[in-house]
Fold this protein.
Amino acid sequence: MSDVIRLLPDSVANQIAAGEVIQRPASVVKELVENAVDAGADDIQIIVRDAGRTLIQVIDNGCGMSDTDARIAFERHATSKISQAADLFALHTMGFRGEALASIAAVARIDLRTMLHGASIGTRLIINGSRVESQEPEACAPGSNLMVKSLFFNVPARRKFLKKDSVELANIMREFERLALVNPTVEFTIVSNDSTLHKLMRGSLKQRIVELFGKSLDKQLLPIETETSIVKISGFIGLPQHARRRNALQYFFVNGRNMRHPYFHKAIMTCYEQLLPADMQPNYFVNFTVDPQTIDVNIHPTKHEIKFEDEQAVWQILVAAVKESLGRFNAMPGIDFDSTDAPEIPVFNPNASADHSLELDANYNPFAEAPTDFAGGESTGHAAPDHSFSRQQQPRNDMRHAATDWERLYEEFAKPSPEPATAVSMSRLNIADAADEADAIAHPSIFDSVPEQDTAFSLHEEGSAMTMQLKDKYILTPSRSGLMIIDQHRAHLRILFERYMEMTEHQAFASQSVMFPEVVRLSPAQNAVLSIIAPQVQEVGFDISYLGDNSWSLNGAPAVLGEVNPVDTLLRIIDDETEGGEKPADGLRRRIALSLARAAAVKAGTHLTPGEMDRILSDLFKLTSPNYTPDGQLIIAILSHTDISAMFA
């Protein structure tokens, strides 16, 4: 038998490596910008066309490369960052594996122009799918100008599964945000299809945050600063009153590198537990500076996951720093001692004599019977005593009225109590109360014999099946198979989705002007998406106009929204578009209908009346597909008679 194991060609190995390192156009932007930062650049331009499918170009003023280095840089595992394994634990650069450029060259066409500072001539290198086509001397600016064209041109399956331009551009913008935040001293420019999306000047971290996400954040952030022998923590956290339900700005950096760390995220959330509702998220921008030997960044090709040697100690330091900042800059309202309603407190004067001018009634007897006729509970109207009305007479009048009030109170107790109700609406009771009341009605005495009833939960006199609400989240109702449990939010979402789809099947959404236009401030990624889908969003009833600086004016909203917040609905549409992929032409209308339904559907935790529950069940069971939401979530679950019997076996 002949040998069957062979070494893969470098071009194939590079394509396999590209599958992990280069997942989408945003991955190319990340790798090229990090290389530019490692090269010492302080001015980086990013140019993309067709969301990176056609072109990704990164121009920097870094150190540049010689002609030999330029060619070797595209070989696999070629790097200037490390030379031995021990260097992995003392990294001060973004890149170190030497896989990025080789992986990019394996799935794209490369055109590189680069020149060393002080050199008189540079070099131009052209690579086509890992194959070097030419390298020639060329006059160019110091630094590097790298163009990545026709990404995944030789991997049709990968190119086919790229998302639509709005989605890929949103991913590029999110990566751009992270890179810009972690490098505030670098000037960044990003251009998409000849339109400049951002031009960020050098500055501090807070200036960069404000440039990216809006001036309103300037007064919404609290600084945190602490330094120990283990870690130095700096950055900003958000005031509790400016927390968000969706799209919270949450970023961690370590030694100038972006990272995701659920453990440290939980630490920050712990500090806000008593300050925020469960569905709110605070903003934070937290930078960790540690000894490179105490972290491991070589976990995943994207280098977003990082392990800390002293994780628990860092947790405690982080919690202490956040709590200290929240306490020191607490914006809780204090007592207003200047209030006009505050009592006047005189200034203490030790030399002043006591005021004994109060006149006392020598004839006052607190035990004397009041001259009152309580017949019928009313005074006879007798005249007051001869002495003038004074402060001492007030208790006598109070006693007289008190006696009358107590007699009236006891009269209420003497009245016969109303007859008890004969029917109980279980939808107004919790499970325990409903069970107790049902037992009291069906069994007046535990010793009385009661004929069997086949009505299960039916307590209405008419014998109809009953509904009840559990935890203000689920609707329970008996069925032939057992006990049916319905998620009220998902059920209402399904009903509204079908209604909105029917409304838009043959007619457009009607727009209704808002009384006061609202300014919607978006992140760079959200703004990139809305800029692309703005015509379609306007077709379904939103009247929006761009104000510049990632801000839009919301002048009108679909009339079908009713009382639903139009800003929240617009943001949800942007998120749905970002997360979606290639879909049919009516996909946007379907996603908009789903977004409207999500925003308008009754939420978990909302108490429903019996009529509201009956209406939801009636509308739900009229649908052809009542069991699942449009995005595949279960609506109805049934606890069978067999399951119930097994509980008591």
Q: What stands out?
A: Confidence is low (pLDDT under 50) at residues 331-345, 371-404, 417-464, 581-585. The longest helix spans residues 394-414.
